[in-house]
Specification:
The structure holds four protein chains of four kinds. By secondary structure, chain A is mostly helical. Chain A is built from 22 helices and three strands. Chain B is mostly helical. The chains are: A mainly alpha, B mainly alpha, C mainly alpha, D alpha+beta.
């Protein structure tokens, strides 16, 4: 799984002292603060080194390894979902084609949607945040690394269970939002909807755990001097996303559990005959659903805001305006959910309120786009692949955003809701708004993560083919939607006249596949066959992550930096440059105050343990057991309770070691 | 060293067997084969109960297959409401002018072949012969559903509650009834 | 405890509570932090922020459960649509006991902030006893709901609302048991007192969320 | 099931209002898109090139920054005004949708089932009412008030050439008012995913002159034609005695099932199975024998019946004009 991470460049693990406490008792207390190559740096390398063997690999809680695992696993799931997308396009290329039966096709589009939204988009953005944010704010690890490790294992087990279910013909078959009567007790036949509800519980738990981890890291572990105004824009985007996740994801976990209670315990939340209501599920889901798509969009805005200054060779124009736009978009996204339900019989006045809100949210994004264009206009440009993808982002996102405004109007939505116009809009906004910036970020931070730069020529081929493929695949769908082609149909009659444009779209899909193939070749060629190593700052960027080696040492900074400007590497050297005095023999970092980042306390990061993996495994046992038997829902709670108890039980060795470095507040 | 290796090997073997068992179990429960194996035959008129044993044996196999198939039993439940079986057997199969179907008392026996025969050829004292009116495939599904009403079918394929007024505990909530505890009624075949 | 000792302790506690109370010393081009404390209470500790995140998550879940309660109540012609409103006895007893449990919880938190192990251990025992009492009262509450969970939308939403709070209550009572046991595992480092203080903070959340839920369950069907 | 199926080919006042709104939105959005892309292109064209090693210029030139700030402010002001314009256009179109005069409207009760549409004309007037399925005939110029109810899962009634869509939600009742101003057949399709055969759950609205509509309506209210030859009589007997009668109803015969489309005047309908197969004698026979071949997952079971019986049934149903 961690093929990219396990690189030849990783230092050979040296034999550790048999018992740390015995060795530590007489060892002099070494403090950090000197540069690389000093005795403290060597001691830090030993302290932050991972345990050997499989147990060691399973108990890694370093934010770089976790971030990498999230991204690699997310791209693995995205590959599978992409194949499903290709299959569907192939099925719809011709009229009356019975290549795929209705049941398998329903599972395909449900799995495509569920995987892309829950198993690819959010985890990959959180993976990038986990990797980049600590480096960008100048700290050694995230605040709760074990919780993020447990979140990764939950994510992996959830994804494997969903694809295991799909492999045994039990994949969800009622769309990626599983509207209730169809996924309810009567029409949701077999265990299919149960597995979907369980996956939602998994992926939301993962999202929430990582969100709390990132929020606490950003607020409390910034380098001294990095006040809120000095924080880089990508860190602002991650903060806004994480806070939104904390307020939105509990709702869909609650909703999925209520549907599961309806199916397993016979409650009547959504049974109209016994007082329930089918629309209640739509309210619950979409109140989370719309912020969900902004969890994917706002980190991508963060990527663009991090990349443009580097390739325009100047600070971002309107930094504060972009921060305010990010925060406003975060708030407004909670007020839009009914624009997914315009075709229901909700009162008209209420719906028009949501039209106004849907139009209003376009303004902060427009402001950001204008600020970016202004930065490009005022800068000196370096036309490299990451910047190309950002330009592709402008084009594709603008079309997606404008069709979004069209969809926001109640009357027009009555014509285009649940048609291929919506399919075109969502792909333009998601591919334009998230996948293009994601590729830009991948090309941008690849040298930092792996120490080698991705090929430029292949990169440009990948960009142009992807750009043409996306537009060729999804633009015709706008027209098909207006010609009445509904969403989620596995076939259509020849008399409908939808065949020619569907064929064009299928051709576009092939071009997409070719571009993804080129990207894969570029990836493999760089990781396994490229020899020359990238420097610490190949793009000449300004933020902190470029001040450490590529790939960064396990402890990130041998001496934590002190920051005095938004682009520390570009600013003239300040008088105070780094922090000294933290322990080099236990994993220690520095917490700082929330607003002005004044040094507050020293903080001992938790040592790597196996318990997060065991806890995630026990939660898996509980959830799978609860799908098959109702008592399993209750007795299944015992394994997780035990796992979390053992996780919390203090480790005597570490307690003794940390006691040596303890100072009263 | 070798014993540990064997133990590892056995653990891996067990895991594979468990996965395959889960897979086949899930496959059988979740298949939606809309085209039945052989198009349902309209059983000729009021053929006497002495229909060929082969046909009954085949029916038992088909009912057994549908009992483990979620789509089959839920189609059976839909047909139960469509063909108004509750008119005589009571809203949740609790009994009315016809005998109750959710208890463990079976006048003519609860095994698959007998239930199929009851529906296809009818019974004295009021059960009409539906053979000529309901295609065979639907009779198999109905028989599978009737057996799941009494808990004789596997619980994880049994249908869940309807989005309607709750008349009984849903079929998938019943703890399975042992077939051998199926008691024939005391009197000579008269419905209680 | 002379007056001077008292206000010394108050000054020490005030210093502990204010972030960046011990400034870092500048040495040449570096900032020396070796004198900084290695843990802090309340929002100086990362555990407090983790707890705040957890409370927000559960607060959102409880909030929307109450919204669902009134959504279903609004579309129902008659409410409660099955069974009669729950008896007031056990709910009110629970309210009383849970409010009373805030006192030992407060004292346990203060003991943890003073880092005196014996006092912490005694008050954690008292909190555990309150926890057991509350769980028993909650069991009777479920029997006094006068409705089954599958009797209709009303029964479902009341059972799930009470169920979620009970899950929350029981997990935090188990937390208190674990913390009491952990006080016996030597050596006791400073960070553990922070954990105990934050768990007491979380218990305030369990107490405070019960008040609106109590009002909704017991008076939502009456008023 | 053929007929005009295009939101850009309006045949009623509501679809026309939406068509105008679509054009307005398209124009405004294309202009905004073009302007923004032009701004980006100019920015790219005029900005000098540099390499990674070029040092970043931190001291922003005041004159240039002020110009950029002015253009950004103008951009935001412009887009906010345009958004307001679109907002009012949307409200205006929304009002036009619900401002349809409902004098002497045709009342239809439409119930959505898994994979077909059940329609009852004039349901409140027992003497006028009759049932039909999947094909609605409406008089040109007269409003049609359709009451939408769902029997199982959520469906969505949508005929793009007439008006926007409206969901049919179980446990809730919604209405939609529609009017066709031009004679013609307008195709619609279920627009909310409802299961295996969501793809083949189409309906057709045939707008015709009031006279033809009255003729059609009076024909629909009569019971089924008596069979005119032996084969049709044999067909009727089979329909009444075998599985057809369990679900289908033919007024005037002993077949009275309520769970499937009413077949009293099935020959008058151009398609069978809600758009699954054309209503020609050969295809009709194949559909009766094995509907799953055309529409896998539909609730109609395949029946094993001899060839001549099948021909008889098909002939009889073909006679029910």
């Amino acid at each position: 799984m961690e093929s990219v991470g396990a690189l030849p460049s990783r230092p050979r693990p040296r034999k550790r002292a048999r018992t740390r406490s015995a060795a530590a008792a007489h060892r002099p207390m070494v403090r950090d603060g000197d540069g690389p190559g000093s005795r403290a740096a060597e001691e830090l390398e030993r302290t932050w080194q991972e345990k050997p063997g499989l147990v060691g690999w399973l108990s890694i809680n370093n934010h770089k390894t976790l971030g990498l695992r999230f991204v690699v696993t997310a791209f693995f799931f995205a590959g599978l979902a992409g194949v499903m997308g290709g299959l569907m396009r192939h099925q719809l290329a011709t009229a009356n084609s019975h290549l795929l039966g209705p049941d398998f096709y329903n599972q395909l589009f449900s799995m495509h949607g569920t995987t892309m939204m829950f198993l690819f988009a959010v985890p990959v953005m959180q993976g990038f945040a986990l990797y980049i944010v600590p480096l960008m704010i100048g700290t050694r690890n995230t605040a709760f690394p074990r919780m993020s490790a447990c979140a990764y294992w939950l994510y992996l087990f959830g994804g494997l269970l969903l694809f295991g279910a799909f492999a045994t013909n039990t994949g969800p078959d009622a769309g990626w939002f599983e509207y209730v009567p169809l996924a309810g007790p009567q029409y949701g036949i077999g265990k299919r909807a149960d597995f979907w509800n369980m996956l939602v519980t998994y992926s939301e738990a993962m999202g929430l755990m990582v969100a709390v981890d990132i929020t606490t890291t950003i607020l409390k572990l910034r380098a001294p001097g990095m006040s809120l105004r000095q924080m880089p824009l990508f860190v602002w985007a991650s903060l806004v996303t994480s806070v939104m996740i904390i307020f939105a994801m509990p709702l869909v976990m609650l909703g999925a559990n209520l549907v599961q209670f309806d199916r397993m315990l016979g409650t009547h939340f959504f049974n109209p005959a016994e007082g329930g209501d089918a629309l209640l599920w739509q309210h619950l889901f979409w109140f989370f659903g719309h912020p969900e798509v902004y969890f994917i969009f706002i980190p991508a805005l963060g990527f663009v805001s991090a990349i443009i200054p580097t390739f325009a060779r100047r600070p971002m124009f309107g930094h504060d305006a972009i921060v305010l736009s990010l925060v406003t978009t975060g708030f407004l996204s909670f007020g839009l959910w009914v624009h997914h339900m315009f075709a229901t019989n909700l009162p008209e006045l209420g719906k028009s309120f949501f039209t106004a809100m849907s139009f209003m949210i376009a303004i902060p994004t427009a402001l950001q786009i204008f600020c970016w264009i202004a930065t490009i206009a005022g800068g000196r440009l370096v036309m490299r692949t990451p910047f190309l993808f950002v330009l592709g982002f402008f084009f594709v996102l603008m079309i997606g955003g404008l069709t979004g405004i069209m969809l926001g109007s109640v009357p027009l939505d009555l014509q285009v809701h649940d048609t291929y116009f919506v399919v075109a809009h969502l792909h333009y906004v998601l591919i334009g708004g998230a996948v293009f910036p994601l590729f830009a970020a991948l090309y941008y931070w690849f040298p930092k993560v792996t120490g080698k730069q991705l090929g430029e020529t292949l990169g440009k081929w990948h960009f142009w083919l992807f750009f043409i493929g996306v537009n060729l695949t999804f633009f015709p769908l706008h027209i098909l939607g207006l010609e009445g082609m509904p969403r989620r149909i596995y076939t259509y009659g020849a008399e409908t006249g939808w065949e020619p444009l569907s064929m064009v779209s299928a051709v576009g899909q092939v071009i997409n596949d070719v571009s993804t193939l080129i990207f894969a070749i570029n990836l493999i060629r760089t990781v396994f066959f490229k020899k020359e190593r990238a420097s610490a700052d190949p793009w000449g960027a300004g933020t902190l992550e470029w001040s450490v080696a590529s790939p960064p040492p396990r402890c990130n900074f041998f001496a934590l930096p002190v920051v005095s400007s938004r682009e520390p590497l570009w600013a003239p050297p300040a008088e105070v440059t780094h922090v000294q005095g933290l322990s080099a023999q236990i994993r220690e970092g520095l917490t700082t105050t929330v607003i002005d980042a004044l040094p507050d306390t020293r903080y001992a990061y938790p040592e790597p343990e196996i318990w997060p993996f065991v806890a995630a495994l026990s939660v898996t046992i509980w959830l799978v057991w609860s799908v098959w038997s109702v008592p399993g829902f209750v007795w299944g709670l015992i394994p997780p309770a035990l796992a979390f108890l053992l996780w919390y039980w203090p480790n005597k060795k570490e307690a003794k070691e940390e006691l040596r470095w303890e100072r009263e507040p | 060293m070798s014993s540990r290796f064997l133990e590892l090997e056995r653990a891996r073997l067990l895991a594979v067997v468990a996965v395959v068992a889960a897979a086949t179990g899930a496959c059988q429960r979740e298949t939606r084969d809309f085209l039945p194996p052989k198009p349902g035959a309209v059983v000729a008129g009021a053929a006497s109960a002495a229909a060929s044993q082969a046909e009954i044996a085949n029916a038992a196999a088909m009912v057994g297959r549908y009992e483990h198939n979620a789509y089959g039993t839920s189609a059976g439940k839909r047909l139960w409401t469509w063909y108004n079986c509750s008119g005589c057997h009571g809203a949740g199969g609790g009994g009315g002018s016809g005998p109750a179907l959710i208890d463990d008392v079976w006048i003519y026996g609860g095994d698959a072949g007998t239930v199929y025969q009851t529906i296809a050829y009818g019974r004295p004292n009021g059960m009409p012969a539906f053979g000529s009116r309901i295609p065979k495939d639907q009779i198999w599904q109905l028989a599978a559903y009737v057996r799941s009403m009494a808990g004789l079918a596997s619980a994880d394929a049994a249908p869940n509650r309807d989005d309607a007024f709750l008349t009984r505990t849903p079929e998938s909530f019943l703890d399975p009834q042992k077939p051998e505890t199926v008691k024939p009624s005391a009197a000579g075949g008269r419905p209680q | 405890m002379g007056a001077r000792a008292v206000n010394d302790r108050q000054a020490a506690r005030r210093r502990e509570a204010t972030p960046a109370s011990i400034p870092a010393v500048r040495k040449g081009d570096a900032l020396d932090v070796s004198e900084l404390p290695s843990y802090g209470f309340a929002h100086r500790s990362l555990m407090w922020w983790g707890n705040a995140g957890m409370m927000t998550i559960e607060g959102v879940a409880f909030g929307f459960m109450v919204v669902i309660y009134f959504y279903l109540r609004d579309i129902a012609r008659v409410w409660p649509d099955a069974g009669s409103p729950p008896d007031l006895l056990w709910g009110t007893v629970n309210l009383g006991v849970i409010l009373a449990s805030a006192v030992p919880n407060y004292l346990a938190q203060k003991a943890a902030q003073d880092r005196s192990l014996p006092r912490v251990r005694t008050w954690l025992y008292v909190c555990s006893l309150f926890g057991i009492a509350l769980s028993v009262v909650r069991w009777f509450e479920f029997t006094a709901l006068n409705v089954r969970w599958d009797d209709g939308a009303y029964g479902s939403v009341v059972w799930v609302l009470l169920g979620f709070h009970s899950f929350n209550l029981v997990t935090d009572v188990l937390d208190t048991f674990v913390l009491t046991a952990v006080t016996y595992s030597k050596p006791v480092e400073g960070k553990r007192f922070v954990d105990i203080a934050e768990n007491c903070g979380y218990w305030y959340f369990v107490v405070l969320t019960w008040i609106p839920i109590y009002a909704v369950i017991y008076f939502g069907a009456r008023v | 099931m053929n007929g005009i199926h295009d939101a850009l080919a309006p045949a009623g006042p509501q679809a026309l209002a939406l068509f105008h709104l679509w054009n307005a939105m398209l124009v405004v959005c294309t202009v905004v898109f073009a302007l923004t892309m032009a701004a980006l292109a100019i920015a790219l064209w005029r900005a000098p090139r540099a390499t990674e090693r070029a040092s970043a210029d931190l001291d922003a030139q005041p004159r240039k920054e002020a110009a950029l700030r002015r253009s950004v402010v103008w951009g935001i002001a412009g887009s906010s005004v345009l958004l307001l314009v679109l907002l009012f256009a949307s409200f205006y179109a929304d009002r036009a949708l619900s401002a349809l005069p409902l004098a002497d409207a045709v009342h239809i009760d439409l119930v959505g089932h898994r994979f077909w549409w059940e329609a009852h004309y004039e349901p409140h007037d027992p003497e006028q009412t009759f049932a039909t399925a999947n094909e609605l005939h409406v008089p040109v110029g007269r409003p049609v008030l359709i009451r939408l109810r769902a029997d199982d899962v959520i469906h969505s009634f949508w005929v793009p050439s007439l008006s926007g869509k409206k969901d049919l939600i179980p446990g809730r009742e919604s209405t939609i008012a529609v009017r066709a101003d031009r004679v013609g057949t307008y195709r619609g399709q279920c627009a909310e995913f409802c299961g295996y055969q969501h793809a083949q759950m189409a309906l057709v609205v045939v707008a015709e002159t009031p006279e033809r509509y009255e003729r059609w309506r009076s024909l629909q209210r009569e019971p089924a034609h008596a069979p005119s030859d032996a084969q049709q009589a044999r067909g009727r007997e089979l329909v009444e005695q075998t599985s057809c009668a369990m679900c289908h109803a033919i007024v005037g015969t002993r077949a009275g099932g309520r769970r499937a489309p009413d077949l009293t005047h099935v020959a008058g309908r151009g398609w069978l199975g809600a758009g699954a197969v054309a209503n020609t004698p050969k295809l009709r026979a194949e559909w009766i024998a094995n509907a799953q071949k055309f529409k896998p997952g539909v609730d109609m079971p395949p029946i094993d019946v001899a060839a001549d019986d099948l021909a008889a049934i098909s002939a009889y149903l073909g006679s029910l004009e």
